[in-house]
Design brief:
The complex is a heterodimer. Helix content of chain A is 41%, strand content 13%. By secondary structure, chain A is an alpha+beta fold. About 6% of the residues of chain A have low confidence. Chain B contains 13 helices and two strands, in the order αββαααααααααααα. The chains are: A alpha+beta, B mainly alpha.
Chain lengths: 473, 310
């Protein structure tokens, strides 16, 4: 009797072991399964998907592209009306968004893994499209890597892309001159200022008056002193101005396999250190709670730096939305050029090499990034600065297209002019890692925990860890 | 007569033998799991530590055999000694209060003469922090101690400090927070282990000491502590090994940076940095060193605490 119990107990233990074993093996499924919906066939469908795969897998790092696709692609049936990332269907093809957070190269890592498996994946598991940012665009549009299909192979012609800004194409052009991605955004950016504070300290919230106070970095730092006297922070954090400096460098981060700190980036360090020591800004992280605290009315931060998407995507609800207590809701922001022209972010759509839905992918790229009607809709509905010269010219000339968040100011002329000037010749495939690690390392210098040289040494260490093929200066 | 007893004994031995067979049978699941998930990865890690093997962009470099090059790089930079020091500092900071508080609580809980009420409740409560995921716990502290977090708000409104104290920008506040979290998470566990040890001590020894007129302090020092030694060693070694592998708490608290200036970067966080860039060779070499350090430290602790008995 007793022995039998022992046996049963042992068997149970063995069973539990085996169960844990299978549990280990089964825990790695990663693709986000969209819930099935009995979506009705859409009427406004122009592309034939009959002989193509039944699943469209799209890799993204946030809900921006899912929202655009859901709102503006004709015939998209969302699985969940409130959450576009849950996917949906287009003409019977199931759309899956594979969402991976972008921080610390996380999205790139996931994308790399999935693209490496692309050749062996079952048709429905293949990545069909993926989104990329300027910071690492070069890695994915590389002709040798050949993971993004050249647009001309999809049948998209130079004529189709003629209305786009040149810089948006330069970024994604490979060594052979083939364009391998397309964007619906032109991300030229400016200085976004708090109108109330401008009135109080500078005497006016007119963009031209404000521009005079921030015309270059010397006047910028002088204005920062005034702001400090009035009890305001010039910027929310030193990282706000980082992109402005880093976009105006003389050479790329990586030259001949070596990491090089450009003079203008060194200038960012020096200017920022002065401002932090004077208490005119902080060393908080971008996107942190402390950073975005200045979005709330009345706000104690004079200005943020950003392109159109920062205004509409991050700063809060427009006046016609629900009152969330943000300055954006009150229409209390203004936009001006700032000390130096620059761009920030922007998302490019790539067709994954080996996709089983080429016709659908082609149509999505054409509709979202070249179609005048769709792009105007995006600009009007989402206040995005679209990558279409004709549409922007039309909007810039029409005063009725003022941006509610900017208190009715029409930003398009400024953004369109900026987009013509953006120069992307100094980007490298390592930019995301370099930018993130440099800001992280310099935080120690700003906080007084390290000398500049120590902080630089830390940056060099972090870069070699992240990119083992690079050498530090 | 004699013959029959002999055959009986023989059949008894057969029975034992046949039961042994089941023993091995039941060991198979463990052996399989161990070999697949522990032994093979261990051997592989050591093997790969001699190779140059990482990802550059979308291309995989290697594996190319480079001998001890990875180890050389690690030792030449000397960084890993700094991270080892960080790890040990944070472990000691957490372990000292942990063992003291646990000893005190265990002594109170096992002392029948105190007649503590609600023992079960408190035993459960002190163990609870251990049930929370370390990363969630760390995230909670990150929010609590943020520049505009509740702790700063309270301190400012009480007038203790004039402006928010930047907990995440000072070496000892970050290390202190990591130690505090480890302490909070593990003192309950240690208390229960020590209690088990104390309850295993023969009650008559305490009674005898009391009859001899020993004070409770003397009983604790002269009777309880020496007899608690095996459990003590167990707690020390497991905590040391756990401490060397400290990762989730500082990783989440400092956003993976080990800031300020990498003073709270632990060995496993460093390892994680290499794994993040798929640098399997370097990560392997670091793992092997970690294994050796763990072995040596455990041996030292074991030897030092066992010496008296020889």
């Amino acid at each position: 009797m007793k022995k039998r119990t022992v046996k049963i107990v042992s068997l149970l233990a063995a069973g539990a072991m085996a169960a844990s074993l299978t549990a280990c093996g089964g825990g790695s499924s990663s693709s986000s399964a969209a819930s099935e919906t009995g979506a009705a066939e859409s009427a406004a469908e122009s592309v034939s998907t009959a002989d193509e795969g039944k699943v469209l897998n799209i890799e993204v790092w946030n809900n921006e592209f899912p929202n655009r696709l859901a709102a503006h692609y004709p015939g998209f049936e969302p699985a969940d009306k409130d959450d576009a990332t849950k996917g949906g269907t287009i003409n019977g093809v199931k759309v899956n968004f594979i969402l991976t957070d972008n921080k610390d190269n996380g999205y790139q890592t996931k994308l790399d893994e999935d693209l490496a498996k692309q050749a062996d994946a079952a048709a429905d598991d293949k990545v069909d499209m993926f989104l990329i940012e300027a910071d690492y665009a070069l890695k994915y549009v590389d002709a040798e890597a050949d993971v993004a299909e050249p647009l001309k192979d999809l049948g998209i012609t130079a004529d189709d892309l003629s209305k786009q800004y040149k810089y948006t194409q330069d970024v994604v052009t490979d060594a052979n001159g083939d364009i391998r991605a397309s964007s619906w955004q032109a991300c030229s950016a400016g200085l976004i200022y708090n109108r109330e504070i401008a009135k109080k300290v500078l005497g006016s919230d007119d963009p031209e008056t404000v521009q005079k106070a921030v015309a270059d970095w010397d006047t910028f730092t002088k204005t920062a002193e005034e702001m400090k006297k009035a009890g305001y922070n010039m910027t929310a954090t030193v990282n706000d101005t980082y992109r402005v400096y880093s976009n105006n460098v003389a050479g790329p981060w990586v030259q001949n396999g070596k990491v090089v700190v450009d003079d203008n980036i060194k200038k960012w360090v020096d200017d920022s250190k002065t401002m932090v020591d004077a208490g005119e800004t902080t060393t908080n992280d971008l996107w942190s709670k402390e950073w975005s605290a200045g979005f709330k009315a009345p706000g104690d931060v004079f200005c943020y730096f950003g392109p159109a998407w920062l205004i509409n995507f991050s700063m809060g609800n427009a006046p016609d939305g629900e009152d969330d207590g943000s300055i954006a809701h009150a229409g209390g922001w203004g936009l001006t050029n700032g000390p130096q022209g620059y761009y920030w972010g922007g998302s490019w759509i790539c067709a994954a090499q080996g996709t089983d839905n080429p016709a659908l992918v082609k149509d999505i790229i054409l509709k979202l990034t070249t179609d005048n009607d769709v792009m105007k809709e995006i600009a009007v509905d989402d206040s995005d600065c679209v990558n279409n010269k004709e549409v922007l010219a039309e909007l810039a000339g029409d005063d009725s297209f003022g941006n509610a968040i900017l208190g009715g100011q029409n930003p398009y002329k400024m953004l369109a002019d900026g987009a013509e000037k953006v120069d992307m010749s100094n980007i490298s495939a390592y930019d995301q890692g370099c930018n993130e690690e440099f800001q992280k390392a310099m935080k120690n210098y700003f906080d007084g925990n390290a000398s500049y040289d120590d902080a630089l040494a830390q940056f060099n260490k972090a870069i070699v860890e992240k990119y083992p093929d690079l050498k530090a200066e | 007569m004699a013959g029959s007893t002999g055959s009986k004994a023989a059949s008894g031995r057969d029975k034992i033998k046949s039961y042994n067979k089941y023993g091995y049978l039941f060991l198979i699941p463990f052996a399989v799991v161990f070999v697949i998930f522990q032994l093979i990865p261990l051997v592989q890690t050591i093997y790969y530590s001699f190779f140059e093997n990482y990802r550059s962009g979308l291309k995989m470099i290697g594996p190319n055999f480079i001998g001890l090059e990875n180890y050389k790089t690690l030792f030449q930079s000397g960084d890993f000694l700094i991270y080892f020091k960080n790890t040990m500092i944070m472990w000691v900071l957490g372990f000292v209060p942990q063992i003291l508080v646990s000893l005190l609580l265990a002594a109170w809980f096992t002392d029948v003469s105190l007649r503590l009420k609600g023992q079960r409740f408190f035993k459960t409560v002190i163990y609870l922090p251990n049930l929370i995921m370390a990363s969630a716990f760390s995230m909670l502290f990150f929010t609590l101690f943020g520049d505009i977090g509740p702790i700063n708000s309270i301190l400012v409104s009480l007038g203790l400090i004039s402006g928010p104290y930047k907990f995440m920008s000072h070496v000892w506040s970050v290390r202190g927070l990591v130690a505090l979290m480890n302490f909070l998470m593990w003192f309950g566990n240690t208390t229960i282990l020590l209690m088990a040890g104390m309850m295993g001590i023969d009650k008559s020894l305490f009674e005898a000491a009391e009859v001899d007129g020993a004070t409770s302090g003397q009983i604790f020092r002269k009777v309880t502590l020496p007899l608690l030694k095996p459990i003590f060693i167990y707690v020390l070694i497991t905590s040391l090994i756990g401490g060397l592998q400290m990762f989730d708490v500082p990783q989440i608290l400092t956003n993976g940076s080990g800031d300020p200036n990498r003073t709270s970067m632990t060995l496993v966080m460093y390892l994680n940095k290499h794994l993040f860039s798929k640098n399997y060779g370097m990560a392997g070499a670091l793992s092997v060193i970690l294994l050796i350090i763990t072995g040596i430290l455990s041996l030292i602790v074991f030897r030092a605490t066992m010496k008296d008995e020889d």
